[in-house]
Amino acid sequence: MDRTDTDLIIAGGGLAGATLALALAREVPTLRVTVVETFPLSPEALPADYQPSYDARSTALAWGSRLIFDALGLWPELSRHATPIRHIHVSDRGRFGATRLHARDHHQDALGYVADNRWMGLCLMRALQDTSVRWRAPAEVLDMMPTESGVEVTIREQGEQQTLTGQCLVVADGGRSGLREKLGFVTHTEHYGQNALIANVTTSESHRFTAYERFTDSGPMALLPHDSPGEPGHQSALVWTLSDEALEEVLALSDEGRCQRLQERFGWRLGRFIRIGECHHYPLALTTVDAPVRSGVALVGNAAHALHPVAGQGFNLALRGLMTLVEQFRNAHEQGRSLGELSVLGGYEQHHRQDWQQTVRFSDSLIRVFGQSLPVVAAARDAGLVGLDMIPGAKRWFARQAMGTGGRKPVLSSPNRSGRKTVPNGQHSG
């Protein structure tokens, strides 16, 4: 194999790209990895401390994702600012159907966690400081051409175009950068005709570490426990689904008016809504790519699939896919094969496909079934929720989807590298 500048080029150093880089540094330390990131931040230029913000954006981490971060040696630090989800309550507003999940029923400390995106990124960057991963930032991947030895990637750094050669390019810069389309990948997008409004809220009653999935006649909403130092037990992360018209109305309201509108839609399970923070919003769609790999390039994370956020499955699905890709790269590297070989990347796509198809169906069906207001459909929903709450087998299946332990389990090394650890269920294998 011809000598190249690097072995792997990762386009995007956000949560997905940084996690992939760290996992490869842990699993395949002799692999040369270069991250190209548009934001002007690298592991060598980190803020000295972390100050939690009320308006910080957050991510729901399933139990399976916690086990992945555990295997990477990151969880002890990350958990310092992660709020556990010990109960999940799913209900249909104005109707009797409901189901409840409890961590203790599954012999776990939590079903999942909620962590600030900025804190997660900072933990990843700090961990990357002690690795050989190279960071090009601020810089941007512009294009890629296949070569006999791998790929030739054109980047822009400090206003100048440069060329990097490697065995493979991984696109981890999300679904909105345009690089995916520039490289010729075909996407399929189904618009839900709704928007997600994201904000942090404070309630008069404690959340008691409960995540609420509330389906209403105008769209689903989720409230996830998300504590900050000043308001332990009373702060939640809100995902509120709104039509275009309803979104305009809510954005035009004062903070007090938004709390009142939210109270009308959610109800009083958390007492009174007394504060709402900065509101972010974006249109909702299900975006998938039929063939997320080709010779020399692979899509991961939101670049490969973007889901409705109310079920909290997007990043957890991406994380499992990243670990599957790491497994394929490790095997190829040990065998002296190029990372960009179609058989290597095809193995990642084959192993990950069932997981993403199942997760997409689970997430999409929740939105479509609970988004209909027809009486006969609503009655069927109620029966389904009641049945889910009463039938152990069905409830266990639902819990596995929520906890992120229902998919294939990639094999990673344990933090002390004394053996292989299978994640996300944490069982050891030889």
UniProtKB/TrEMBL annotation:
The keyword Chaperone does not apply. The lineage of its organism: Bacteria, Pseudomonadati, Pseudomonadota, Gammaproteobacteria, Pseudomonadales. Pathway: Cofactor biosynthesis; ubiquinone biosynthesis. It comes from Marinobacter santoriniensis NKSG1. Residues 5-361 form the FAD-binding domain. Coiled coil: none annotated. Gene3D superfamilies: FAD/NAD(P)-binding domain. This is 2-octaprenyl-6-methoxyphenyl hydroxylase. Its cofactor is FAD. GO terms for molecular function: 2-octaprenyl-6-methoxyphenol hydroxylase activity; FAD binding.
